[in-house]
Fold each of these.
Amino acid sequence: MENESKLLYNNDLKDFENLNITTPSIYNLGEYKVLIILKDGTNLSSWDDVEYLRDILYISEDLSGVDNLSKYYYEKNKQNYSNFSHINPFRKLKAIVAQNVESKVTSLDYMFYKLDNITTITGLNSWDTNSVVDMRFLFAECENLEVISGIGSFNIGNVRNMNSMFYGCEKLSNFSSLKSWDVKDVLDMDYMFGGCSSFNDLAPILDWDINDNCIFENMFKYCSIENRMTFYSNWQDKLLNSFTTIFYDLSKVVGCIYCGKFDMTCKDGHLLCNNCGEILNYFPANCPECGSDNLCFDFEQMEYYCKNCGLVIDFMAEQVPYFEGAYFNAVLDEDIGLKTKLDALDCIKNDKILYSFAFRNDSIQIMKKACENITNHDYLVKIALNHPSSYIRCIACEKIRDESVLTEIAYDDSNEEVSIEAIRHIRDDDFLCELILNSENEKIRNQAIKGIRNYEILLKALHNSNSTCEWSLVANIENKYYLKRLLKEDISSSSKEIALRKLIKYIQ
């Protein structure tokens, strides 16, 4: 993040300013609301003048007066490529100056989602985020993004959801501006920095006061964190149930399963917990590569390596770790009670083992617990698609983040229960609308209706669907503006009555 006390001008923004012949500057649009510069240098002052989004190099926009910024640029993508929402038409876009977001905006979710060529986003120091509650996927999958200027000035006192906020920002490395954030009321940080492969310094967020109820599993999945053990020490009380998933790397993350502490010593071929004295793992005595016995354990990186040849020895992969072996055997032991078996499953962190237990159909409770504890996405997908139990498939659907998998399951009308569960977790309003219009299953249509958040899409479905969906569609509209519009629509008198009753409640 850049210095926020002055206007940012990196190379891309200097080029932007040099091409600008329309406004006083890229930060001062004068009488205009938007400045768009195309690849041939053409200056445009209206989105209506843009023929192809793929030709846009730079955008400066005054967002005052815009009430809804949810999926703002992503929706422009879908408007141009409604049948190809996976395509990014902003393929040449390098920088955005986005200014003057007003306090009436409550959601910024998916605003810059999948702008995968953009390098710079600036102007954010002019945003009033006092009312914003949702920032999930705000910059997600901007894989070439290097600079976000002004983000440190955000007031996030009301924000509750930061799920995947920076997910997939592979080149974003400096998060120093986040040090001042007060995140104590945020309830979801799952995958917040997931895939930020250049993020390696946790210092700016080490002092964050995380809410006790906050979800932050996989928060740093695929990050090259250098000071992870310092992070564990600072957040230890909150990490007792999450330390093996927050970095999503079992070969490098080890904590004492007996007391939850991260104070360990390597001695005589054992990994010992200094707090409770338990043995956590036995190490091989010799390097499998060169045979040397000059082996060492790096507690900062949680790696066991050979000092002679440098080989990092993966002592946990493809095996039952020593400290999990007792729990593995307990689950298999016919003489041990079910409650103890379930408690033992909670201590197993190896997804390969949990996956095998998820298919042991001698106990639905064990399959359920194993599935709930799996973090590996590929295993969850296999369970959701292939498990013989609909109940277990539904549990897997709850944890799957890939909507392409969920949409595949949603189309499987042969299993209504699983299809409905998959639809519950789909956020693509256009796909849900497609289900409403095409599915012959009333329960599936009704669940799709419940999932749509964009009232314009609900009205689109209302215009194109058969009358059997009308009541449910009307019942899911709560906005006063759209309720008034319903009174003018060609719908049944009973549906109009529902809309009228909702409007009366607002007045009362």
Amino acid sequence: MQNASKLTLCIDVADNAIGQEILCDCVLALEKIADEVGCILSVILTGSFSRGEGSVLFMPSGEALILGDIEFIVVTKLGSDLGHIAMLLKSAAKKVELSLKEKSISCLIDFSPVARSFLKRAKPSIFIYELLLNGKVVYGDSNILGELPVFTASHIPKCDAFYLLCNRIVEQLSYFKKMSLSDLTDVDMYYPLVKLYMDMAGSFLIITDRYEPSYSLRYERFAQMNASDCFVDGDLFSVFVKRLEEMTKFKLHPNNANAILSDISPETVRNMFCDSIEFARHLWLWEIRQLTNNKNIYDLGVSFQTIMKVFPVKAKVRGWLKFIKIASDISEPLSFKKIFRLYFVGPPQILIYCAAAELYFSLQRGEECDVKKVMHFLPTQATAANQQEAISAVVDAWNKFIRSV
């Protein structure tokens, strides 16, 4: 396997032995598939581990818990059967995870196949920017990343920042549902909030053309910022920066922050969760003001109506065609009467995001939101009689039509 030795240099984990175990299993799995299909050109390590910010938490049981995924992009020759390769890679990732589990390492592995043309035709986005800046070729053509277009953080579309925030909001809904069922470990109670704060900071920095993939550099940007330059000011700014510092320390050095988990309680987490909604609400409204160039949007209802109108007709048509195709591919029943009505409201992705935001922001007030209104704008045939069922419907729609795409 070409360049396999590079793998030992690419993942900066808390314990070198843990890193070696993870890497050896990944190498063996990728090597086997490369020999089998004969069309893999390169493998690129991406995500937090490629920039030396991967998190390994050592549990009292002795298990090493990897926080987040270890992600690889598998570049294939033009004309390769990506569907077949994706199935092989998915199966291989599961086997690697099971192999690591037997060694007391809990880890999620993600092998994602793309055609070589994907790199050549790539447009500026958060994902491509991070791949360009921090991607590590661990197998094959070491110059493959040179096929990506070169651009700066200022070229990342501002709507990418908004989508990043929206995706975290949907994840928070799923987190809230599990929290309500008391179905979370100490780590699971805390880590979703860490992700939220990391990406609220990242989302804001994208819109202000100061984006940093590095978690530590994101915090530094805020630590050096004046309150008047942020999406919140006054005391809220100070509280946000302090919380961001705490979350960054945990993400980068979870074992040094183990005391946080030992002192955590469901009540503490609920309070932190409600505090985070306040910051997310401020950021949501601020971003919509920036995206629409309308400085007078301070009402959530108005923000929903306004963001729907931002996207041009071409983008809306493309969004609905994609939505219908995905539904066909996964045999998801649709109401074309409902689709026809919602087409004149906004793109399906934004409808799902606004339904999620309506539910999420109501949680801070501790009151039931208008479930009928949420379901009226959700572009699926799902029904819900209460808030919990509405959350399930929105998260399900997000998983099927946004996250899995």
Amino acid sequence: MKSPVVLLADDEVGFVETLSKRLRKRDLSVVTAHSGQEALENLGTNSSIDVVVLDIKMPGMDGIVTLNAIKRLHPLVEVILLTGHATVESAIEGMKLGAFDYLRKPVDFELLLSKINAVQEKTVRTDRLVSLGRLAATVAHEINNPLSVVLTYIKLIVKLIERDRFTPERLAEVRQYLTYMEQETSRCGEIAKNLLSFARQSKSEIVPESIVDIIHRTLLLVSYDFKHRNVQLLKELADELPLILCDANQIQQALLNLLQNAAEAMSEGGTITVEAQRSSDAGFVEVVITDTGCGIPAARQNDVFEAFFTTKEKGKGVGLGLAVVKSIITRHQGFIEVESPVTKKKSNPGTRFRIRLPIARQGGTSVAAAEAERA
């Protein structure tokens, strides 16, 4: 999983040094501050900070005042308060002001880690809700279309009956109507089933899955949105690809974010190509999503996976999508890369995202993990 960036703010220098070393040993990136003012300055210059671990009792600007300022200036950054027994009431006050949680000193290190991980999980859930909101209207339209077809054929059959024209000669025509109705209602059921599967809050389960099946389920969810935006979809999915070891819902969420972003990057329509194939890296399957949209400037490509970074207009997004995608892919021991431009057209340079996910092997582990163990 992408290592969260932690801002550790405490006026006790020895405590900060010791705790930051332990956090870094667990692959967390740590920024330090020894006052509330310094913490705010770090947040102002470092947009990659995910969570602030903040001591309440600091000279000058104390933790509660600092918390208030963080929530006013950086409302999407979560804060975990540190408190001594004498300041528990202040910690509770901090919770009311928007702190994510609080811990008592001396700090239980494993408990602190669990709280930091919980912040990341909350970010993923937030992105999931955003995705569901975006899907709600498009899925409603997608279901409305086949239902309109079914209603039309029902009316035709009723008219045949009312006018006493339900003759043996017209049975073949009626059978065709019923076949269309069966196909359209089945499509409605498939759309609803996939949306419910995506929305279900189930425990993460890492099992062997077909990446092609996951891609098909995801494309079904965005098919109406693509038609509405005049986006042409091209699929190049290799046959008989090996299974990957993954949580299918999370991989679907990652692909959904990439596809929605690609569609939004083409204001006047365009083409999205989805490829699935064996990677040139042994032990991996590769998914490639390419669009013919506005592209991503080279100077900003290193930032696109940072939380709260966005190239969209104000009010169009908070910049969680690609950060969550990166988190999901790395959690699966995979890799994601971005490339832009992919064409020579200045108006539509396009963007390509390349994802590599480890192939599953017998015994429920990935090929990549097994090779890492041998190394």
